[in-house]
Write a structure and sequence with these properties.
heterodimer, A: 74 residues, mainly alpha, Non-ribosomal Peptide Synthetase Peptidyl Carrier Protein, Chain A, globular, B: 530 residues, alpha/beta, Rossmann fold, Aminopeptidase, 3 domains, eight-stranded mixed β-sheet, five-stranded parallel β-sheet, 17 strands, flat
Chain lengths: 74, 530
Amino acid sequence: MTERLKNVFKQVFKLDEIADNISQANCDKWDSMGHLNLIVEIEIEFDISFEPEEIAMMKDFKAVKELLKKKINL
Amino acid sequence: MKYFIFRNYTVEPFFKGLNVVFSGYENISFVDAEAGAYIWFYLSPYRTDNQIIANEITNYGNLLELVLAKINPNKPLLVFTMQVVYKINYQTAESNVEEAIINYNQKIREWTRDNRNLKIIDISDFFNRFSREQLIDWKYYYMSQMPLNPKLASDFQQWFERQLEIIKLQRKKCIVLDLDNTLWGGILGEDGIEGIKMGETYPGNTYRFFQEYCLQLHQNGIILTVCSKNNEQDVLEVWEKHPDMLLRKEHLVTYRINWNNKADNIREIAQELNIGQDSLVFIDDSPTERELVKQMLPQVSVPDFPKQPYLFPEFIKYLTDNYFSAYELTQEDAAKTQQYKENAERRQFQNQFVDFESYLQSLEIELTIEPLNDLNIARLAQMTQKTNQFNLTTKRYTEIDIRNFADKGALIYGLRVKDRFGDNGLTGLIIITTSTKKEAEIDTLLLSCRILGKNIETVFVQYILNKLKVSGVQTVKADYVKTLKNNQVAEFYSYLGFDVENISEMQKRYNINLDNINFSTPQIYKLIEK
């Protein structure tokens, strides 16, 4: 799952490598439009839907991964 | 190409991958002068008060009118129509929103008349593929001001790209049709003329529907041909005698009814019509035949055939959207089938003559050379987009580009060709730019392949060179730029007596000194200058 998630990040932000600590603070491309694109692509890839409150919390890779895990295990 | 997009909501994901700059929401105060083209993409707002929706839409129309006055009329402006996606119906009889939408769409259609750079893109064609639940994801609407579901972005991109192609007049020229279980139900060789199914009842009515569609393509200038494994005599009998056969021999430009390999037959059809294999769409119910053609002729488009005959309506929509749509057709397009047919007759006629000269003489060829005008500009631009084989530089131009050439003083002439078999219409173009009074350069030279083989190309260019000489030009430069398709004209300028200036792998540059030449038009051609 982590690998699949990283691939989504790579594709959305057009990066070759995704560091485990990537975040809105340390990645230029992760701006508000980037965030929107990221959420859309994750929802498509894993066939899930996040709530707005969850989307607001997904500020770094770790948070995204945790929320995604929770969704998939439900 | 850099696009500048006027918009009233967040629509960035839909134009991902394009070189775009977005306006502010509902902001028309800034117009990016650097952009190569403009897009107007306003979506109808979601409100509870229908009068407000109607007023906003009217206001968008007014904004667009201002933009139209502001942008460079030589740059394309692509305007999306508007459609209501979400609306609450308090009163069934109330129609203020509908009226506002109708007015808006009506207005932009009217504006296209006086603004040749404005092209319409019909958003309903995209919206109608989806339900409202698919079109809107309310979460994204409230979080990011996106009235359109961002998950449709890739569908939209694909559709939008096709719309751009349609505007650029890129479409297929010819459809190759199978017969058994394609134009009628059943197999002629087994079921006989009484046994095959077409007509009023199922499944015959589905085949009739498909035949009606083919006739519509015919009217829209698509060349109809048939390629079928059958006995020719049996098929001719169906064409002549079957009362429910709508598609008849006279609608077909050519056909191959025999037991040969279909790939060979299709290759022959392309050669006979003098069109590229990538201009063909092959329709056949047999997966084996389709696979063979796909493998042997990879440039031919081979769509899947519907599994059930009652699925023809979806199939023809697919065919049109993907292969045959045109933004707007000129008279020449609509008359094209007739011209290809006349050409076939000319070829038969040719066989009666022993020497070529007397054959040409008997054709009574009439060439008309006409300068650029408002009536021929659309066709001249279209020829630069579509002509591949007899095209020396293969530069693709829009109407706007052509107009720009004229504004800069270029000489632009179209060529009309007529003979005893019919009128081929505008089929040639030359664009000549002049840097000084004594020096000219041929920017574009092309002729439609329909009229080749009669030495018209030489007469045309020699006549133009003479004209230049009379006007005081001494040197004419010209290029041959190699493409995959224009090999036949690689030596054209040498043949005319031009000298090679330099050669690279993809290009040859020529010049000719007009002082030393004296062309006269051979007697067999009647030449008229307008």
